[in-house]
Amino acid sequence: MKLFIDSANLEEIKTAASWGILDGCTTNPTLAAKNGVTDFLSIAKQILSLVPGPVSLEVLSQDYAGMTREGIALAKLGKNAVVKLPTTIEGLKACRALTNKKISVNMTLVFSALQALLVAKAGATYVSPFVGRLDDAGHDGNEVVQEIIEIYDNYGFKTKILYASVRSPLHVKQAALMGCDIATCPFSVLEKLVQHPLTDTGLSKFLSDWKKSGLKPLV
Ligand code: E4P
After folding, report:
1. Can you point out the beta strands (E) in the chain?
2. Looking at the Swiss-Prot or TrEMBL record, what is one Pfam family this protein matches (predicted)?
3. Segment among 94-98, 201-205, 206-210 with least mean pLDDT
4. From the CB of 106, is ligand 1 less than 6 Å away?
5. How far does the centroid of ligand 1 lie from the alpha carbon of residue 165, in Å?
Protein backbone atom coordinates (compact mmCIF):
# COMPACT_ATOMS: atom_id res chain seq x y z
CA MET A 1 0.00 0.00 0.00
CA LYS A 2 1.28 3.46 -0.85
CA LEU A 3 1.59 6.04 1.91
CA PHE A 4 0.83 9.69 1.21
CA ILE A 5 1.16 12.63 3.57
CA ASP A 6 -1.99 14.72 4.02
CA SER A 7 -0.42 18.12 4.53
CA ALA A 8 0.40 21.53 3.08
CA ASN A 9 3.25 22.09 5.54
CA LEU A 10 6.60 22.13 3.74
CA GLU A 11 8.62 21.12 6.81
CA GLU A 12 6.38 18.11 7.50
CA ILE A 13 6.49 17.07 3.84
CA LYS A 14 10.28 17.45 3.67
CA THR A 15 10.74 15.43 6.86
CA ALA A 16 8.41 12.62 5.78
CA ALA A 17 10.09 12.52 2.34
CA SER A 18 13.48 12.08 4.05
CA TRP A 19 12.30 8.82 5.68
CA GLY A 20 12.25 7.01 2.34
CA ILE A 21 8.71 5.70 2.71
CA LEU A 22 6.69 8.53 1.21
CA ASP A 23 4.85 7.85 -2.05
CA GLY A 24 2.80 11.03 -2.52
CA CYS A 25 0.90 13.90 -0.94
CA THR A 26 -2.63 15.23 -0.67
CA THR A 27 -3.52 18.82 0.15
CA ASN A 28 -6.79 20.69 0.55
CA PRO A 29 -7.84 24.31 1.14
CA THR A 30 -8.23 23.72 4.90
CA LEU A 31 -4.70 22.36 5.19
CA ALA A 32 -3.39 25.32 3.17
CA ALA A 33 -5.27 27.81 5.38
CA LYS A 34 -4.01 26.06 8.53
CA ASN A 35 -0.45 26.71 7.37
CA GLY A 36 -1.10 30.35 6.54
CA VAL A 37 -0.70 29.76 2.79
CA THR A 38 -1.87 32.71 0.70
CA ASP A 39 -0.09 31.94 -2.60
CA PHE A 40 -1.19 28.35 -3.12
CA LEU A 41 0.41 28.00 -6.56
CA SER A 42 3.86 28.79 -5.20
CA ILE A 43 3.51 26.32 -2.29
CA ALA A 44 2.10 23.71 -4.68
CA LYS A 45 5.21 24.00 -6.91
CA GLN A 46 7.47 23.45 -3.89
CA ILE A 47 5.47 20.42 -2.73
CA LEU A 48 5.59 18.96 -6.26
CA SER A 49 9.37 19.14 -6.24
CA LEU A 50 9.73 17.72 -2.70
CA VAL A 51 7.47 14.69 -3.13
CA PRO A 52 8.57 11.63 -5.08
CA GLY A 53 5.08 10.85 -6.38
CA PRO A 54 1.60 12.20 -7.07
CA VAL A 55 0.53 15.40 -5.31
CA SER A 56 -3.20 16.21 -5.18
CA LEU A 57 -4.01 19.91 -5.56
CA GLU A 58 -7.61 20.97 -5.05
CA VAL A 59 -9.60 23.40 -7.19
CA LEU A 60 -11.59 26.20 -5.55
CA SER A 61 -14.30 26.73 -8.18
CA GLN A 62 -17.63 24.98 -7.77
CA ASP A 63 -18.77 25.01 -11.38
CA TYR A 64 -17.65 22.77 -14.24
CA ALA A 65 -16.04 25.54 -16.31
CA GLY A 66 -14.11 27.00 -13.38
CA MET A 67 -13.00 23.59 -12.10
CA THR A 68 -11.81 22.59 -15.56
CA ARG A 69 -9.93 25.87 -16.02
CA GLU A 70 -8.27 25.62 -12.60
CA GLY A 71 -7.58 21.91 -13.11
CA ILE A 72 -5.72 22.56 -16.36
CA ALA A 73 -3.64 25.27 -14.64
CA LEU A 74 -2.85 23.01 -11.64
CA ALA A 75 -1.88 20.10 -13.90
CA LYS A 76 0.64 22.34 -15.66
CA LEU A 77 2.54 22.91 -12.38
CA GLY A 78 4.31 19.57 -12.57
CA LYS A 79 4.29 16.07 -14.04
CA ASN A 80 3.23 14.63 -10.67
CA ALA A 81 0.30 17.04 -10.20
CA VAL A 82 -3.10 15.45 -9.65
CA VAL A 83 -6.22 17.61 -9.78
CA LYS A 84 -8.52 17.21 -6.80
CA LEU A 85 -12.21 17.80 -7.46
CA PRO A 86 -15.24 17.64 -5.17
CA THR A 87 -17.74 14.83 -5.80
CA THR A 88 -20.68 16.83 -7.17
CA ILE A 89 -22.38 16.79 -10.58
CA GLU A 90 -20.13 19.68 -11.66
CA GLY A 91 -17.14 17.80 -10.29
CA LEU A 92 -18.06 14.66 -12.27
CA LYS A 93 -18.35 16.70 -15.46
CA ALA A 94 -14.97 18.33 -14.83
CA CYS A 95 -13.49 14.91 -14.00
CA ARG A 96 -14.58 13.55 -17.36
CA ALA A 97 -13.27 16.63 -19.19
CA LEU A 98 -9.88 16.53 -17.45
CA THR A 99 -9.41 12.76 -17.76
CA ASN A 100 -10.22 13.06 -21.48
CA LYS A 101 -7.22 15.40 -21.61
CA LYS A 102 -5.11 12.71 -19.83
CA ILE A 103 -4.98 14.74 -16.59
CA SER A 104 -5.05 12.65 -13.39
CA VAL A 105 -7.98 13.40 -11.11
CA ASN A 106 -8.56 12.61 -7.45
CA MET A 107 -12.27 12.80 -6.55
CA THR A 108 -12.55 14.01 -2.98
CA LEU A 109 -15.22 14.23 -0.28
CA VAL A 110 -16.55 10.75 -1.05
CA PHE A 111 -18.83 9.40 1.66
CA SER A 112 -20.74 6.59 -0.09
CA ALA A 113 -20.18 3.60 -2.35
CA LEU A 114 -22.55 5.12 -4.93
CA GLN A 115 -20.46 8.29 -5.16
CA ALA A 116 -17.42 6.04 -5.65
CA LEU A 117 -19.23 4.19 -8.46
CA LEU A 118 -19.92 7.49 -10.23
CA VAL A 119 -16.37 8.80 -9.93
CA ALA A 120 -14.99 5.56 -11.38
CA LYS A 121 -17.43 5.88 -14.31
CA ALA A 122 -16.23 9.49 -14.79
CA GLY A 123 -12.68 8.15 -15.25
CA ALA A 124 -11.12 9.32 -11.95
CA THR A 125 -7.59 8.08 -11.26
CA TYR A 126 -8.23 8.17 -7.49
CA VAL A 127 -11.28 8.02 -5.24
CA SER A 128 -10.96 9.46 -1.73
CA PRO A 129 -13.41 8.03 0.81
CA PHE A 130 -13.25 10.16 3.99
CA VAL A 131 -13.20 7.43 6.62
CA GLY A 132 -12.48 9.56 9.69
CA ARG A 133 -15.28 12.02 8.97
CA LEU A 134 -17.73 9.14 8.49
CA ASP A 135 -16.62 7.63 11.81
CA ASP A 136 -16.94 11.06 13.47
CA ALA A 137 -20.56 11.21 12.27
CA GLY A 138 -21.38 7.82 13.79
CA HIS A 139 -21.09 5.83 10.55
CA ASP A 140 -18.62 3.06 9.79
CA GLY A 141 -16.10 4.49 7.34
CA ASN A 142 -14.42 1.13 6.77
CA GLU A 143 -17.74 -0.42 5.77
CA VAL A 144 -18.03 2.16 2.97
CA VAL A 145 -14.46 1.42 1.85
CA GLN A 146 -15.21 -2.33 1.82
CA GLU A 147 -18.26 -1.68 -0.38
CA ILE A 148 -16.18 0.43 -2.76
CA ILE A 149 -13.60 -2.37 -3.03
CA GLU A 150 -16.34 -4.90 -3.80
CA ILE A 151 -17.99 -2.72 -6.46
CA TYR A 152 -14.67 -1.87 -8.14
CA ASP A 153 -13.73 -5.57 -8.13
CA ASN A 154 -17.12 -6.57 -9.58
CA TYR A 155 -16.61 -4.38 -12.62
CA GLY A 156 -12.83 -4.14 -12.91
CA PHE A 157 -12.71 -0.37 -12.37
CA LYS A 158 -9.11 0.86 -12.41
CA THR A 159 -9.73 3.88 -10.13
CA LYS A 160 -7.34 3.65 -7.17
CA ILE A 161 -8.79 3.68 -3.67
CA LEU A 162 -7.17 6.40 -1.58
CA TYR A 163 -8.19 5.92 2.08
CA ALA A 164 -8.54 9.50 3.37
CA SER A 165 -9.39 11.39 6.54
CA VAL A 166 -7.12 9.10 8.52
CA ARG A 167 -7.28 9.64 12.27
CA SER A 168 -4.99 6.93 13.68
CA PRO A 169 -2.47 4.17 12.94
CA LEU A 170 -5.38 1.71 13.29
CA HIS A 171 -7.01 3.32 10.23
CA VAL A 172 -3.78 2.75 8.27
CA LYS A 173 -3.68 -0.91 9.28
CA GLN A 174 -7.34 -1.37 8.36
CA ALA A 175 -6.72 0.27 4.97
CA ALA A 176 -3.82 -2.11 4.30
CA LEU A 177 -5.79 -5.18 5.45
CA MET A 178 -8.64 -4.27 3.11
CA GLY A 179 -6.17 -3.89 0.23
CA CYS A 180 -6.57 -0.15 -0.39
CA ASP A 181 -4.11 1.26 -2.92
CA ILE A 182 -3.14 4.25 -0.79
CA ALA A 183 -3.67 5.76 2.67
CA THR A 184 -3.09 9.48 3.11
CA CYS A 185 -2.05 10.35 6.65
CA PRO A 186 -1.47 13.46 8.72
CA PHE A 187 2.20 13.84 9.72
CA SER A 188 1.32 12.95 13.35
CA VAL A 189 -0.06 9.58 12.23
CA LEU A 190 2.88 8.85 9.92
CA GLU A 191 5.22 9.43 12.88
CA LYS A 192 3.26 7.00 15.04
CA LEU A 193 3.42 4.16 12.49
CA VAL A 194 7.00 3.30 13.40
CA GLN A 195 6.60 3.64 17.13
CA HIS A 196 6.35 0.67 19.50
CA PRO A 197 7.28 0.64 23.20
CA LEU A 198 8.90 -2.80 22.86
CA THR A 199 11.19 -1.39 20.16
CA ASP A 200 12.27 1.38 22.54
CA THR A 201 12.87 -0.89 25.54
CA GLY A 202 14.54 -3.51 23.34
CA LEU A 203 16.88 -0.92 21.90
CA SER A 204 17.91 0.52 25.26
CA LYS A 205 18.63 -3.03 26.50
CA PHE A 206 20.82 -3.72 23.43
CA LEU A 207 22.71 -0.48 24.05
CA SER A 208 23.23 -1.03 27.79
CA ASP A 209 24.35 -4.67 27.23
CA TRP A 210 26.77 -3.50 24.55
CA LYS A 211 28.24 -0.84 26.87
CA LYS A 212 28.64 -3.42 29.71
CA SER A 213 30.30 -6.00 27.46
CA GLY A 214 33.02 -3.70 26.22
CA LEU A 215 32.32 -4.67 22.56
CA LYS A 216 34.25 -2.50 20.11
CA PRO A 217 32.29 -0.28 17.64
CA LEU A 218 31.58 -2.02 14.32
CA VAL A 219 33.25 0.61 12.15
C1 E4P B 1 -7.76 13.93 1.71
O2 E4P B 1 -7.30 14.11 0.60
C3 E4P B 1 -8.14 15.02 2.63
O4 E4P B 1 -7.23 16.07 2.50
C5 E4P B 1 -8.11 14.63 4.07
O6 E4P B 1 -7.81 13.27 4.28
C7 E4P B 1 -9.22 15.19 4.90
O8 E4P B 1 -9.12 14.72 6.20
P9 E4P B 1 -9.78 15.41 7.46
O10 E4P B 1 -11.11 14.79 7.69
O11 E4P B 1 -8.81 15.10 8.57
O12 E4P B 1 -9.86 16.88 7.19
Report:
1. 2-6, 24-26, 55-58, 81-86, 105-110, 126-129, 160-163, 182-185
2. TAL_FSA
3. 206-210
4. no
5. 4
- Is 2 a catalytic site residue? no
7-13: Cβ within 8 A, 24+ apart: 7/31, 7/186, 7/187, 8/32, 8/34, 8/35, 8/37, 8/43, 8/47, 9/35, 9/187, 10/43, 10/46, 10/47, 10/50, 12/187, 13/47, 13/50, 13/51
- Domain locations in the chain as residue ranges: 2-213
Side chain identity at 74, as an amino acid letter? L
Distance CA 57, CA 71 (A): 9
Q: Which residues pair with 164 in a beta bridge?
A: 130
Handedness of CA 6, 11, 14, 18 (dihedral sign): negative
164/121 Cα distance (integer angstroms): 20
pLDDT > 90? residue 214: no
Orientation of helix 40-50 relative to helix 10-18, angle to 10°: 10
Nearest CA to ligand 1 atom 9: 165
Confirm or reject CATH 3.40.50.2000 for domain 2-213, answering yes or no.
no
